[in-house]
């Protein structure tokens, strides 16, 4: 006898077109607002509907702001410039509990919750706590990444879900994308990272805190030092050079995100350099999420590089100009993301990916001085 209850919600027939039954995605993807997804990242409304974003709060003095408002961005930039107290917090488990319950009520059968590195934030822990009492199975993926290193993993997870993958397949897509991503960034000063306790292996640089312009990377979920450069112009030139070296190591199509906070012109120049190096790359120019900029400080410039898994035109290029194939910009430069990103059984504890698909650190890579 047919188990109709098991099939309920999995299939629907298009009444308008009278077409054949279409497989309805069964897995939703949840992430946090550090992912930096462009507003129009998805190729279709259906794909976008599979992803939900939990906002991470930013506290400036005694004011609490949610990610993504123009008022908050302006307040954060002013606070950082004035050296005010700026803090961030993980989302409360209750936020995830409410969202997981809502997704179950919408008919989803599982959730893959994809988040920034647990070594930089307790967000994944909050998601795991909520997963214990969720009304549907939730798998929490710690990507050991941030910004569009996380954002690309979310995109790939959503595409797997839209293609009908089970939860295990969606998890595998997110992990593979995160493991293959490479993130480099420059900060004018380590002070803000030091205040937030996110400095990791760069702590040994404190003796020369004001004498260097550091280039850092995300490795195994931590902020690690790559090079100490003596001046800002040389640091920016070196970041471009390191980005080109990473692109040269890649085979196949790539996606590149250039993040900035308070220095968009420098980001535009870097994005243009990437385009010249790899004309067929999909290049995204976008502000760093406020929850990350609060720790990196004003003037941060970051590059996230990952393999491209999409086919055809870059997501959103024709509609909003937020993401484009590198050669598609009318001015020959990267397209821009002007505004904030979208708002929007038990979790697994041992979910931190390794470094598969990512170039291993060489002895000469770390802690170098550049005159």
Automatic annotation (TrEMBL):
The domain of life is: Bacteria
Among Pfam families, the record links this protein to: DegV (PF02645)
* Region annotation Disordered: where it falls in the sequence: 309-371
Alphabetically list the UniProt keywords.
Lipid-binding
Signal peptide positions on this chain: none
Q: Fetch the InterPro entries from UniProt.
A: DegV (IPR003797), DegV_C (IPR043168), DegV_domain_contain (IPR050270)
Name this polypeptide is given: DegV family protein
Q: Which organism is it from?
A: Arthrobacter gandavensis
């Amino acid at each position: 006898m047919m188990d109709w209850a098991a099939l309920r919600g999995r299939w629907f027939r298009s009444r308008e077109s009278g077409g054949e039954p279409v497989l309805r995605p069964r897995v939703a993807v949840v992430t946090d607002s550090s992912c930096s997804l462009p507003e129009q990242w998805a190729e279709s409304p259906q794909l976008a509907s599979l992803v939900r974003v939990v906002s991470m709060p930013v506290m400036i003095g005694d004011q609490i702001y949610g990610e993504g408002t123009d008022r908050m961005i302006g307040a954060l930039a002013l606070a950082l410039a004035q050296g005010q107290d700026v803090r961030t917090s993980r989302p409360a488990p209750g936020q995830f509990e409410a969202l997981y319950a809502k997704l179950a009520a919408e008919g989803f059968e599982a959730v893959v919750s994809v988040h920034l590195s647990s070594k930089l934030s307790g967000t994944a822990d909050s998601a795991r706590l909520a997963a214990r009492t969720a009304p549907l199975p939730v798998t929490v993926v710690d990507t050991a990444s941030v910004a569009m290193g996380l954002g690309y993993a979310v995109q790939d997870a959503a595409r797997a879900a839209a293609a009908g993958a089970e939860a295990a397949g969606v998890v595998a897509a997110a992990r593979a994308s995160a493991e293959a991503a490479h993130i480099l960034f420059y900060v004018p000063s380590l002070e803000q990272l030091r205040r937030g306790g996110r400095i990791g292996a760069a702590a040994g640089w404190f003796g020369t805190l004001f004498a260097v312009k550091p280039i850092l990377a995300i490795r195994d979920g931590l902020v690690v030092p790559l090079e100490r450069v003596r001046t800002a112009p040389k640091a920016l030139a070196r970041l471009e050079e390191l980005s080109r070296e990473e692109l040269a190591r890649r085979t196949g199509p790539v996606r590149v995100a250039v993040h900035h906070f308070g220095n968009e012109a420098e980001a535009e120049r870097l994005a243009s350099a990437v385009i010249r190096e790899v004309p067929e790359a999909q290049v995204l120019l976008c502000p760093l999420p406020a929850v990350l900029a609060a720790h990196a400080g004003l003037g941060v410039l970051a590059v996230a590089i990952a393999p491209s898994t999409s086919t055809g035109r870059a997501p959103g290029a024709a509609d909003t100009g937020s993401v484009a194939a590198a050669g598609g910009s009318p001015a020959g430069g990267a397209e821009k993301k002007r505004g904030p990103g979208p708002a929007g059984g038990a979790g697994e504890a041992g979910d931190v990916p390794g470094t598969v698909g990512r170039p291993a650190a060489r002895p000469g890579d770390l802690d170098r001085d550049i005159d």
